[in-house]
């Protein structure tokens, strides 16, 4: 039997070989260190109700997400992200307070001027490659759990305060509820002095 004889039929009557390839969703993020992610998972697991905690291994801060890449743009994107990472030192951010998105995601707010600077650099690098700008303003956060649309953040999260070290960014794909990291980019510039205002009173 020839390869063409083994092609399966797609739902519309064409063959799978003729069907368009699925669009790959990407995001650029910093994943949380294991000990921080597991503490946040334990916290989210105690919130109860209809809230479903985010698995610890999936907890991350997204700088940019997008669907699909124009042909030939993956290698230039990896090169651009490597250059961005070299320009930024590892940083310590503060997780303080919480919020919610209308679709039902409950999140911890990330506070750091250096996170904002890193995001701006990633954005500029991506736009220089012809990728479209982000659809929404950047809200630095880590998703803790999901619930029904319109779920407010539980009051107990108002007291959330935690410091987290971020020392890499990752280009990651997502699909079928699974993440796959395409490449890690360690943050590589010599460390600066800790930024002020990182105490609970900040």
Instruction: Report the CATH superfamily of the domain at 24-93 and 110-142 and 165-186.
Output: Cyclic phosphodiesterase
Gap between N and C termini, in Å? 70 Å
**CATH-defined topology of the domain at 24-93 and 110-142 and 165-186:** Cyclic Phosphodiesterase, Chain: A
Major β-sheet profile: 5 strands, antiparallel
CATH class of the domain at 24-93 and 110-142 and 165-186: Alpha Beta
Question: How many extended strands?
Answer: 9
Number of helices: 3
Task: State mean pLDDT (0 to 100 scale).
Answer: 84
Uncertain stretches of 5 or more adjacent residues: 1-20, 190-202
Task: Strand order, main sheet: write it out.
Answer: 2-6-5-4-7
Strand fraction band? 25-35%
Radius of gyration from the alpha-carbon trace, in angstroms: 20 Å
Estimated helix fraction: 10-25%
The SSE order reads: EHEEHEEHEEEE
Structure characterization notes:
With 202 residues, this protein is of the alpha+beta class. The chain has a domain at 24-93 and 110-142 and 165-186: Alpha-Beta Complex (Cyclic Phosphodiesterase, Chain: A). The chain is 20% helix and 31% strand. The chain is built from three helices and nine strands. It has helices spanning 34-45, 74-86, 113-128; strands spanning 25-31, 52-53, 60-67, 91-100, 105-111, 141-146, 161-166, 168-175, 178-186. The strands form two sheets. The protein has a five-stranded antiparallel beta sheet with strand order 2-6-5-4-7. α2 runs antiparallel to α3 (113-128). The longest helix is centred in the middle third of the chain and has 16 residues, at 113-128. Residues 1-20 and 190-202 have low confidence and may be disordered.
């Amino acid at each position: 039997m020839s390869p063409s004889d083994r092609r399966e039929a797609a739902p519309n009557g064409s063959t799978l070989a003729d069907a368009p390839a699925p669009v790959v969703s990407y995001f650029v993020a910093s994943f949380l260190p294991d000990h921080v992610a597991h503490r946040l998972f334990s916290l989210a697991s105690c919130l109860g109700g209809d809230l479903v905690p985010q698995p610890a291994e999936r907890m991350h801060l997204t700088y940019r997400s997008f669907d699909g890449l124009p042909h030939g743009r993956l290698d230039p994107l990896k090169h651009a992200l490597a250059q961005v990472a070299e320009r930024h030192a590892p940083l310590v951010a503060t997780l303080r307070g919480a919020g919610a998105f209308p679709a039902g995601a409950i999140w911890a707010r990330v506070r750091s001027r250096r996170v904002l600077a890193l995001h701006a650099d990633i954005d500029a690098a991506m736009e220089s490659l012809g990728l479209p700008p982000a659809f929404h303003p950047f809200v630095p956060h880590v998703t803790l759990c999901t619930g029904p649309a319109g779920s407010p953040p539980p009051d107990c999260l108002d007291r959330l305060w935690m410091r987290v070290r971020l020392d890499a960014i990752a280009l990651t794909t997502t699909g079928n509820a699974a993440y796959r990291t395409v490449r890690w980019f360690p943050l590589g510039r010599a460390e600066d002095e800790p930024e002020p205002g990182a105490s609970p009173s900040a």
